[in-house]
Fold:
Amino acid sequence: MNLETILSICLGIGLASASGFRVFLPVFALSLASYFNVIPLNESWAWIGGLPALISLGVAMVFEIFGYYIPFIDNLLDTIATPLAAIAGFVVMSSTMVDISPTMTTILAIIAGSGSATAFQGLTTTTRLASSVKTAGLGNPVVSTAETGTAITLSSLAIFLPIVAVILVVIIFGVIYWIFKKLK
Structure:
């Protein structure tokens, strides 16, 4: 396994994890980075770097981000975000795997991509539910801002410093796990 392969796996894990915080933001970031030739995509997924995908993903990202600031809509988005996060995790992981066999790409995309996206989405859904119950929804904008900020940070790190992104993913998961253990 060469350095390029390791970096593409780290890129995929970082973006997939960010998909657990916001579904469309990391996919948009991937599209933008590919459009400007910052990162290569698997040739089967090259369409993500095209202008139509970039525009569509940008619009979806804006609606998703602002939707999380609207009471009731935020909880509705959480309901549909879990399966969408799994799909987004698969997509970003598959599309970033360069020079890896299709079988290995699919296995990594299912386990690492969909798995990390779904794990973080589950944690964010639980956090939003706890916020809704404890603050009658008044704390949800703070949660939304933190989730969006985390998705932006993870996406940026994944694209420019993929190994650091994976380290941050492990740290975030550890902190969230620690917080939930303290709350019990």
